[in-house]
Design a protein that fits this description.
Length: 585
């Protein structure tokens, strides 16, 4: 879709003109260009051999040139799709950049995918080559490829039937020549196919040209500059997989391009310790991480004296009052100042002394959950995006955080609400379409009635307030229409249920029925009964849960969670159809 050029532009924000960086036309052009200017600057930090290892921009550039030469020598050509199945590590970014540099199309794929998932992506994308980080993943790809096999299967480990990473990088390549080549890549060239994890049918390959990710970078530039993070020595703790559309853009190139070092987390069980050890300025996460962190804080609080628990509760209550009103009186302001030193300072210390913000994306973050952390002095920002939009669309700001919204659209994004409430997006960040699926593309990139210019139809129902801030209320197709004709948002009710400490997961049903029922996954060792009662007390009569039952957890392994931890609502409802019928009987 046509849109403003992302590079070499000037942006207006808050009355201040901000000069952008050189007019890069491609991601590898940007990455290798930065390496030429800042060769000794730290770029990546990852855990290896019992300690943290650093990769500089110079190391990265020479590794890209070497792998690019190896890929060409083994027949990878412009336009070829190459699956990239790897955990977060330097080689992922090296492979991603090298493939794009020689004109190939990267297909980042989750390491948690089943053989069937890989088979669909290989078949749909037409990928005849793949890069895997482990022998186990390589074997899974080989099985997914079937009898025809793959023309090239590269593995970072020594594995039978694969070409080793060492062999692929034996030729040092010609870095100067590669830099000259990438300078000629047009911004409209297809850079990658990101397969949407999907909460319903088969994943679709989103065609993202270089323009889309560079537009994301230009859109976020004013925020990064106002935070003073450019080439400041700040680091970013990367928790999401690089195959996730958000992490692929934000962690894999956008933040790196501002000189912010990316540090790959060792996993959810280590992230609490890594906050203190790494002292990141920025972290991104999905809502589930916030639920886990809140659970750990509250569990630790149970071991404290009643007096200390009372101080904690008072701190949260006053923090919420400061955000939501009514204003604190003089005595309360004095109490709040004291509690800031006694309670909030200790909580902030858990997250490191340099933390600027934790940005939540990937799914709706319940305002009560974000409010808990904000009341304790942890800057949690909710953002919004879609794979089809590069993916960053909107984000709150640390100094202007409206937690019940997803913030203002970033620079360069046009947003409007259609007559039926659907959010429409336009700008250079929008995808070219779905790979091999012109019908879905035509539905998603369509002009509103009476217009000729196409907009991205997000499928999300939203509201733009008078200040331009965006609030997402639901998925358009997920609204429940009850037997009485009432339209109910299941996402809102599910969010309220999962904000309760006794409930880990929840799905609400009731389409065409007299009332709503719920499938509930209890938190470990908890009974959800009182939680459901509390939530029903907050809901209108048509929204209340009439009956509920507990079910086994929704997981990636049983197919009811996407790799990005979103519940596949339709699949859950289908698999539990018998239990739902029993609730209505």
């Amino acid at each position: 879709m046509p849109g403003p050029k992302p590079g070499g532009t000037r942006h207006q924000r808050g009355g201040k003109t901000i000069q952008d960086t050189p007019a890069w036309t491609s991601l590898p052009g940007m990455m290798l260009g930065i390496a030429a200017r800042k060769p000794d600057h730290p770029m990546i930090r990852h855990w290896s051999g019992g300690g943290w290892k650093r990769t500089t921009w110079r190391d990265f550039a020479f590794a890209v040139a070497s792998l690019a030469a190896g890929l060409r020598a083994r027949g990878v050509s412009p336009g070829d799709r190459v699956a990239l199945v790897s955990d977060s590590r330097p080689e992922f970014l090296i492979a991603d950049t090298a493939l794009m540099a020689i004109g190939a199309v990267t297909v980042p794929t989750y390491t948690t995918n089943t053989v069937a998932d890989h088979a669909h992506i290989l078949r749909d994308s037409g990928a005849r080559a793949a890069i895997a980080s482990t022998a186990r993943l390589a074997e899974r790809l080989r099985e997914a490829a079937g009898p025809e096999g793959l023309d090239l299967l590269v593995c970072l480990e020594e594995a039978p039937g694969t070409t080793s990473w060492a062999a692929m990088t034996a030729d040092p390549g010609d870095l100067a020549m590669l830099v000259a080549e990438v300078a000629q890549i047009p911004e409209g060239r297809l850079a990658c196919l990101i397969y949407t994890s999907g909460t319903g049918g088969k994943p679709k390959g989103v065609m993202l040209p270089h323009r889309a990710m560079l537009a994301n970078r230009a859109g976020v530039l004013p925020l990064i500059q106002q935070l003073g993070l450019e080439w400041s020595g700040a680091c970013y703790l990367s928790f999401l997989p690089l195959s996730h559309a958000y992490e692929h853009t934000v962690g894999g190139s956008l933040l790196l391009s501002y000189g912010i070092e990316i540090v790959f987390s060792r996993g959810a069980d280590r992230i609490a310790a890594e906050f203190r050890e790494i002292e990141p300025a920025l972290v991104t996460a999905v809502p589930r991480l916030f639920e886990v962190l809140r659970g750990r804080i509250l569990a630790g609080l149970e071991k404290e004296t009643p007096f200390k628990r009372g101080l904690f509760d008072r701190t949260v209550a006053l923090g919420l009052r400061k955000m939501d009103g009514p204003p604190l009186n003089l005595l309360e302001r004095l109490q709040d100042a004291v509690l800031d030193r006694l309670v909030r300072a200790k909580v902030r210390a858990r997250f490191g002394s340099k933390l600027v913000a934790i940005v939540s994306g990937g799914a709706r973050l319940d305002p009560d959950l974000s409010g808990f952390f904000l009341a304790l002095g942890i800057n949690v920002l909710q953002g919004y995006g879609q794979t089809e939009a590069g993916p960053v669309i909107a984000v709150n700001l640390p100094w202007d955080n409206r937690r019940r919204t997803v913030g203002l659209p970033v620079t360069g994004v046009e947003a409007r609400i259609a007559a039926d409430g659907e959010l429409l997006i336009r700008g250079g960040l929008v995808m070219d379409g779905y790979w091999g699926d012109p019908e879905s593309t035509a539905r998603t990139l369509a002009a509103p009635p009476g217009e000729t210019e196409p907009w991205l139809h997000t499928g999300d129902v939203g509201v733009l307030d008078e200040t331009g801030r965006l609030t997402i209320t639901d998925r358009k197709k997920d609204f429940i229409k009850t037997l009485g004709g009432d339209m109910v948002s299941p996402a809102r009710i599910e969010g309220l249920l999962m904000a309760e400490p006794e409930i880990a997961q929840a799905v609400v049903a009731g389409e065409g029925r007299a009332g709503l029922v719920a499938l509930v996954v209890p938190a470990e060792g908890a009974s959800p009964e009182r939680a459901v009662q509390r939530i029903n007390g907050k809901l209108a009569g048509t929204e209340r849960i009439r009956k509920w039952r507990t079910v086994d957890p929704f997981t990636v392994e049983n197919g009811m969670l996407t790799p990005t931890m979103k519940v596949k609502r339709r699949l859950v409802l289908d698999r539990h159809a018998a239990e739902i019928e029993q609730l209505y009987s």
